[in-house]
């Protein structure tokens, strides 16, 4: 009787569970049994592993073979267990010393020829292994860069099972041909399974050389200023205006105003994109805020996460630490939009399905855009809107009150005047210039929140904001009157104060003045109160 064990990782959403892969050989009729709640793709690993072992020059044991995946109560899915199963079988057959396998974590899919193929979710899997105390992992060579992002873990990258056997048995490591189809203009078949068609649901990370620049936007000085405040304080923003006024143009430039991700944020974002199959080849780390713009016909599952079997990350998770932009928001299903209310408050989403429950990060900056009416011409000069008042009310009611109460900035985007559209744009501020002011404002907030768990103004609880950091005397007089008359809710009052603090940070002031608060009130209520100068 032979026995060996090694380890791999089962992913449940973006969190990993270390799984012990045990192989047991006993005398009897040759058979291969795989137990431990495997899914269909994992059950098929029996045939892949057998072919890979034989084609790697090793003999397949002709005995009764049982492979167990422990803990058996955790569902296992995917092909990333192949490498661990093959090595456990070879250890039980004494082709490899079982003691060499016990402290290793192995992640990778096996081809029938023994090549080791990369799989999705390598980064969160290695993070889970490190948290469990493991310090050595074996991954496909193409995934070494991603796995190496985890500090304190020794990563071994292999091209084939033959190479791994040689390393574990102290034999000369054979050279494997490293063909690069990309050099010949062909797609790499080893990377085919990493990007799942349709899984990106409109995700665009703005990772290319050409980032949309704010200097391309003609006019819209008020909307540009609100966009700057949204970036500086992570305030949710809503653009309303006629078609062609520049709502989408403005929202697409919001990610460029955000600071680069911190190392911790980069790991979180990369883990989500790796699991979702949205991590671009050759780019193991996402270091810029992601931008996700799902179509307005997106379903509940595609937005918050879901799907058959264990839930997959949705658009709110793909936009984690970045921007989620929903264009034509009034055309969206009202129930789907209202599903954003919880993640907007807590920064994560818990998706419960029959196959299991999954918690995924969803701390994003929400940007909404909508027309004022179905035809889009309501309120415009010479627009000729023919929509009935009842139709306009129903159209705007698709954006529910509870959802809009969580949006700090509500901006009316007016049509661009001819003089602004045709004027030279050399004097327009670029994304880099505005981003520098945003960075300076965030630095001021960071100093203010040095001994707290918060980083930006939008995260500070209302009670702390009202009692710990005071505004200028008498600055809240108008806001207090609006609160008393019911024009402003308690949550709205807190959000007005947060926006006012961001306005003060951008202007270099130590605390908000009445001008800052009145400008924040104007954006929230739509009633003109006065405008604050937010840029220095």
Automatic annotation (TrEMBL):
Q: Which SUPFAM superfamilies match?
A: P-loop containing nucleoside triphosphate hydrolases, Ribosomal protein S5 domain 2-like
Alphabetized GO MF terms: ATP binding
| AAA+ ATPase domain ranges (all copies) | 233-417
Q: Which CDD domains match?
A: AAA
> Region annotation Disordered: residue ranges?
170-190
Compositionally biased region (Acidic residues): 172-181
Family assignment from sequence similarity: Belongs to the Mg-chelatase subunits D/I family. ComM subfamily.
NCBIfam families per record: YifB family Mg chelatase-like AAA ATPase
State the protein's name.
YifB family Mg chelatase-like AAA ATPase
């Amino acid at each position: 009787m032979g026995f060996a064990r090694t380890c791999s990782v089962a992913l449940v959403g973006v969190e990993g569970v270390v799984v012990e892969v045990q192989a047991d050989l006993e005398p009897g009729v040759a058979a291969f049994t795989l137990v431990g709640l495997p899914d269909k793709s994992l059950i098929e690993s029996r045939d892949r592993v057998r072919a890979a072992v034989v084609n790697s020059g090793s003999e397949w044991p002709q005995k009764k073979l049982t492979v167990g995946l422990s803990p058996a109560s955790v569902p296992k899915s995917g092909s990333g267990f192949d490498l661990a199963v093959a090595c456990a079988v070879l250890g039980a057959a004494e082709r490899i010393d079982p003691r060499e396998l016990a402290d290793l974590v192995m992640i990778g899919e096996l081809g029938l020829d023994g090549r080791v193929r990369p799989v999705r979710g390598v980064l969160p899997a290695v993070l889970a292994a490190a948290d469990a105390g493991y310090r050595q992992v074996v991954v496909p060579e193409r995934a070494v860069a991603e796995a190496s992002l985890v500090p304190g873990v020794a990563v071994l990258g292999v091209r084939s099972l033959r190479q791994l056997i040689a390393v574990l048995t102290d034999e000369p490591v054979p050279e494997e041909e490293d063909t690069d189809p990309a050099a010949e203009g062909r797609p790499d078949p080893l990377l085919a399974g990493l990007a799942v068609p349709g899984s990106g649901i409109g995700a665009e990370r703005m990772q290319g050389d050409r980032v949309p620049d704010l200097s391309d936007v003609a006019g819209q000085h008020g909307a540009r200023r609100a966009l700057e405040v949204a970036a500086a304080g992570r305030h949710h923003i809503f653009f309303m205006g006629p078609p062609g006024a520049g709502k989408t143009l403005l929202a697409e430039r919001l990610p460029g105003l955000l600071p680069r991700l911190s190392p911790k944020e980069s790991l979180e974002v990369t883990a989500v994109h790796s699991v979702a199959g949205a991590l671009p080849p050759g780019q193991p780390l996402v270091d810029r805020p992601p931008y996700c713009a799902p179509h307005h016909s997106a379903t509940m599952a595609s937005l918050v996460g879901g799907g058959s079997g264990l839930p997959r990350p949705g658009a709110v998770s793909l936009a984690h630490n970045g921007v989620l932009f929903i264009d034509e928001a009034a055309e969206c299903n009202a129930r789907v939009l209202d599903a954003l209310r919880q993640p907007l408050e807590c920064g994560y989403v818990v998706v419960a399905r029959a196959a299991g429950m999954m918690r995924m990060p969803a701390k994003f900056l929400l940007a909404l855009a909508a027309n004022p009416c179905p035809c889009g011409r309501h309120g415009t000069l010479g627009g000729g809107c023919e929509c009935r008042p009842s139709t306009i009310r129903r159209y705007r009611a698709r954006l529910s009150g509870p959802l809009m109460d969580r949006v700090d900035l509500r901006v009316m985007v007016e049509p661009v005047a001819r003089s602004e559209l045709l004027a030279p744009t050399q004097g327009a501020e670029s994304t880099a210039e505005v981003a520098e002011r945003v960075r300076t404002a965030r630095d001021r907030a960071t100093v203010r929140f040095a001994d707290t768990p918060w980083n930006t103004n939008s995260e500070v609880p209302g009670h702390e904001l009202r009692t710990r950091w005071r505004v200028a005397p008498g600055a809240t007089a108008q806001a207090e009157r609006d609160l008393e008359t019911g024009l402003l809710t308690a949550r709205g009052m807190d959000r007005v104060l947060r926006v006012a603090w961001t306005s003060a940070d951008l202007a270099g002031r130590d605390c908000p003045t009445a001008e800052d608060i009145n400008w924040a009130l104007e954006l929230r209520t739509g009633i003109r109160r006065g405008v604050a100068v937010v840029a220095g």
